Automatic annotation (TrEMBL):
Lineage: Bacteria, Bacillati, Actinomycetota, Actinomycetes, Kitasatosporales
Family: Belongs to the GMC oxidoreductase family.
Official protein name in the record: Choline dehydrogenase-like flavoprotein
Domain of life: Bacteria
Pfam family, one: Lycopene_cycl
Domain (Glucose-methanol-choline oxidoreductase C-terminal): residue spans on this chain: 432-483
Length: 510
């Protein structure tokens, strides 16, 4: 990066005119995919991705580490130096393992690869019709985005071209293997999920260790981005900025930008939603295990029964033999937390940038109802399994409070079980599913249907912050589909109008 002067009162930050035509904030799943797609479309001029964290290697953590160490990196906040919570917590939500992974690649180097579309019942009525049509009907005269992006992921993973998985009936539900954008190593239990870094175009510049402090807005238009690197601040000139810094950081950056246009703009965004996720593990004697479950155990894979509008929860099932010779059934519901006022992001405005940011991650009464409905379904599934096996077994016992503070130990319970009939339960504290979304919904008051911030020309948002509702599905497929859509829209806009001149020196690379 070029030499800059520290930004202090009376000593404005160094200005680098025309640093890029488009700056993308955040080198995670959404930001990298937008940049990659934009570069592929051509004609966008200079694209720069600004990332707060370092280039700490471009490998997925399950590829870089052996399984036990990788488990620790996921489940022990102290085991990953990149875990980052750039906000103040005000309740039990968004602590522990929740948060960003501040490094080049972001959580694209951590995700599990489960790629499911948001269910029709969650899209209908809440998402703008034009976006639903692009995702599920037809996009730009071709196949719908969900179909083309899923095909791209299958191709990357080397899976067969056909999408449909055979369905297996169990406990009154239909289960199919969960679609995963994953490549397996030949041995050692290592695997990796898709990251846009795997197919990274040289033409896109990456600036690591560069924290986006604020979007610069003049007369209602984006003119650049204020970044801090090694304690020094610099204004990077650009006419277009895409915020893809994760839901909470993107929310802060939008709130700050809105205030530059209107000093009375709100400083709080409701709608922050993660997932309601909980499950049980049960041990069976393999000789007596339900025959249908044995078939699942042989494959060792993850199966899913898709969510309906009533339970609003996917049911996942994984069966395996533990080292004590018991067949473990791990069954969990992952359901939709409804966006509302219980989850929110807000800032304390002031002269000092960045504004201090807080989150609340509570359960609304509707979420509490979902917790109870999931528990009824999980107990029913366990009962049915025991009936089929002709064995008894302790009914899964859930604590009254939702969100296991000792999640890591509970997730390890199945592997440690020594007695058939044992059960254990777990629930993910809000935020720890890492599916936080919903503060800047597409087609809402702040964002139009193309993810442009209505009040600030040149500013767009990518990532799950833009989901009007998240349904029960894991978010990545939708993140990637919307990234493709945003990149194509941006490329078209830039081709229509002259992008800002790009005259300055590059800001340095990772
Ligand atoms: C262990 C794990 C398993 C998961 N499994 C799945 C799964 O199977 N399926 C699924 O759909 N989802 C899964 N997820 C969730 C998924 O990874 C996230 O939903 C997704 O990565 C979010 O994408 P994003 O681009 O919004 O955020 P991120 O990928 O987190 O990227 C945000 C980036 O922005 C950077 N940043 C933030 N603030 C600033 C700033 N001010 N300046 C500059 N840079 C900034 C961050 O450092 C980060 O690199 C999983 C997540 C984890 C952690």
């Amino acid at each position: 990066m070029v030499a800059v002067t520290a930004a202090t009162p009376g000593n404005p930050p160094g200005r680098q005119a025309g640093a890029a035509d488009v700056i993308v904030v955040g080198a995670g799943l959404a930001g990298l995919e937008v940049a990659r797609r934009l570069a592929a479309a051509g004609g966008a001029g200079r694209i720069l991705v600004v990332e707060a964290g370092p280039d700490a290697g471009r490998e997925h953590y399950r590829w870089a580490d052996e399984p036990a160490r990788a488990d620790a990196r996921w489940l022990d906040p102290a085991a990953d130096p990149h875990l980052w919570q750039p906000y103040r917590r005000t309740d039990a939500g968004y602590g522990g393992i929740a948060g960003l992974r501040r490094r080049l690649g972001g959580r694209s180097l951590y995700w599990g690869g489960v790629a499911l579309p948001i269910e029709p019942w969650a899209l209908a009525g809440s998402w703008p019709d034009s976006v639903v049509a692009d995702l599920t009907g037809s996009w730009r005269g071709g196949p719908p985005l969900y179909e083309s992006v899923a095909a791209q992921l299958r191709q990357w993973a080397g899976s067969p071209a056909g999408a449909a998985q055979p369905s297996h009936p169990l406990v009154g539900r239909e289960f199919a293997e969960a679609p995963k954008a994953v490549r397996q190593a030949d041995q050692g239990g290592r695997w990796r999920a898709y990251s846009p870094l795997d197919d990274w175009p040289d033409s896109v510049e990456l600036a690591c260790d560069s924290h986006a402090v604020a979007v610069q807005v003049e007369a209602g238009r984006v003119t650049g981005l204020l970044v801090e690197r090694a304690g020094e601040r610099q204004l990077l000139g650009a006419g277009r900025v895409v915020l893809a810094a994760g839901t909470v950081e993107s929310s802060r950056l939008v709130l700050q930008a809105l205030h530059q246009v209107d000093g009375s703009a709100p400083v709080e965004l409701p709608g922050l939603a993660d997932k309601v996720a909980q499950g049980f593990m049960a041990a069976f004697d393999p000789a007596q295990a339900p025959p249908s479950v044995k078939a699942f155990a042989e494959s060792g894979r993850l199966f899913v029964s898709r969510a309906d509008a009533e339970l609003r929860s996917s049911v996942f099932l994984r069966c395996y033999l533990n080292e004590h010779g018991l067949l473990i059934v791990d069954c969990y519901c992952m359901g939709e937390q409804l966006p509302g006022r219980a989850g929110r992001v807000w800032c304390e405005p002031g002269a000092q940038l960045p504004w201090p940011t807080s989150v609340a991650g509570g359960l609304s009464p509707a979420d509490e109802q979902l917790v109870l409905a999931q528990r009824r379904e999980l107990r029913r599934i366990h009962r049915e399994l025991c009936l089929e096996a002709g064995t008894g077994g302790a009914e899964p016992a859930f604590e009254s409070a939702f969100g296991s503070p000792d999640l890591a130990e509970r997730l390890g319970a199945g592997a440690a079980m020594t007695t058939a009939g044992s059960t254990a339960t777990y629930s993910f504290p809000i935020g720890s599913e890492q599916h936080e979304s919903g503060t800047l919904p597409l087609g809402g008051a702040l964002l139009d249907e193309h993810a442009r911030v209505r009040a600030v020309a040149g500013l767009s948002v990518a990532g799950p912050a833009t989901f009007p509702r998240s349904g029960a599905a894991n978010p990545a497929l939708t993140i990637l589909a919307l990234a493709a859509r945003l990149a194509a829209d941006l490329a078209e806009e830039l081709a229509d109008g002259a992008p800002d001149g790009s005259t300055g020196r590059g800001p340095g690379t990772c």
